[in-house]
Write a structure and sequence with these properties.
Conserved hypothetical protein from pyrococcus furiosus pfu- 392566-001, ParB domain, 3 domains, 12 helices, alpha/beta
Length: about 375
């Protein structure tokens, strides 16, 4: 035993020296499930059945974390006979039993099947069939609270598709949407509808079309710390909750009806590539007073702005008149978009004394 231990130490030192020589990062061992379980206070378990698990989410082992490095490669001091047998079986296409994994949040630890996971990773597979036992974190961090809500949402609805929210309480709102949709389906069909079926119908006919519109619109670019599910929850809550007063643009009513089931009906025959864009153009005229003899210099700067379509030097109470065409999403008011444009691009120009904005109410334009 002493010789084997010494041998493993020496082998480890040799491996480190080789890694340094090759400029490769030294990989640590896989994570210990028990250590992470204690850190997360994850002791209550729920069976999740058998499903395909992304191999890059398997980051640890329950009992053999000392035997594999951080990329789940078997260490040099561990006999490789078993791994070679598993690899040979995979090459021959022999069916493999699902591995057994413990789950904490979105990470997995191998209970049984370490060599199968190592071989699958080495062969470049993306997923592996696994029987899952999930341990729910109990410590009250924001991340864990959200995860518990997400877990309860999945358990009630049976949905496994990724729906990631960043605000506490929003999963319950989605669950209430599904319950309401289930009642609608039962009323229209006259038959009982299982919760899982209602959830799946909600996901494909309501959630996916609306998130598809959001993704196509580019709205996520304006909310870097939010997810598409966050925007879905925000838009649907303000659009479909009766009696809600809102401050964003009313143009969204033409795109998304004020009733959830009306939206579902509208989108039923709409293909994804036909989803409308949540954007509209707005025209404004900006009247400017400027310092004497600075008109031409300011006009040259304004001309470089893509949004500026016309520039006129005028006589009277104002010095320069410009026409701008801006693009806004349907959640934002005209005043907000125009105000931001003027603040960021106009008032910062040296020599501009004041601005006044006019927004056309009704227009008639002759064709050129």
């Amino acid at each position: 035993m002493g010789i084997s231990f010494l041998k493993s130490i020496l082998t480890g030192k040799q491996a480190k020296q080789r890694n340094r020589a090759n400029h490769e990062p030294v990989e640590m061992e896989t994570r210990s499930f028990h250590d992470d379980q204690v850190n997360e206070k994850a002791f209550d378990a729920v069976s999740r059945g058998v499903c395909e698990v992304p191999l890059d989410r398997i980051i640890g082992s329950v009992g053999r974390y000392h035997d594999f490095d951080g990329k789940f490669r078997i260490k040099s001091h561990v006999p490789s006979d078993r791994l070679q047998q598993v690899k040979e079986a995979m090459r021959r296409g022999k069916p493999m039993q699902p591995v057994k994994l413990y789950q904490i949040k979105d990470e997995y630890y191998v209970l049984d099947g370490n060599h199968r996971v190592a071989a699958a990773k080495e062969f470049g597979h993306e997923t592996i069939s696994a029987k899952i036992l999930e341990f729910i974190p109990s410590s009250n961090t924001l991340e864990n609270i959200l995860y518990r809500e997400k877990s309860a949402f999945r358990e009630e609805t049976g949905l496994s598709a990724p729906i990631d929210l960043t605000e506490v309480g929003k999963y319950e709102y989605l669950q209430q949407q599904i319950r309401t949709h289930r009642e609608h389906l039962q009323k229209t069909t006259g038959k009982p509808v299982p919760c899982s079926r209602a959830a799946l119908d909600w996901f494909h006919t309501i959630y996916k079309p609306l998130t598809g519109i959001v993704e196509k619109s580019g709205l996520l670019n304006h909310f870097p710390n939010r997810t598409v599910a966050d925007l879905y929850a925000y838009i649907s809550f303000h659009q479909w909750e009766k009696g809600r007063q809102r401050t964003y643009g009313i143009g969204i009513d033409k795109l998304i009806p004020r009733d959830m089931e009306a939206f579902r009906e509208k989108m039923t025959d709409t293909k994804e590539r036909e989803y409308p864009e949540m954007k509209t153009g707005i025209t404004a005229f900006i009247l400017m007073t400027v310092k004497a003899k600075s008109e031409y210099r300011i006009m040259d700067k304004l001309y470089q702005l893509e949004e500026v379509r016309e520039i006129h030097s005028v006589h009277g109470e104002v010095d320069i008149l410009i026409k701008v065409v801006l693009t806004r999403d349907l959640l934002t008011s005209d005043a907000e978009i125009i105000g931001n444009f003027v603040h960021e691009h106009i008032r910062g120009i040296s020599g501009v004394n004041s601005t006044r904005t006019l927004i056309p109410g009704h227009s008639k334009i002759k064709p050129e």
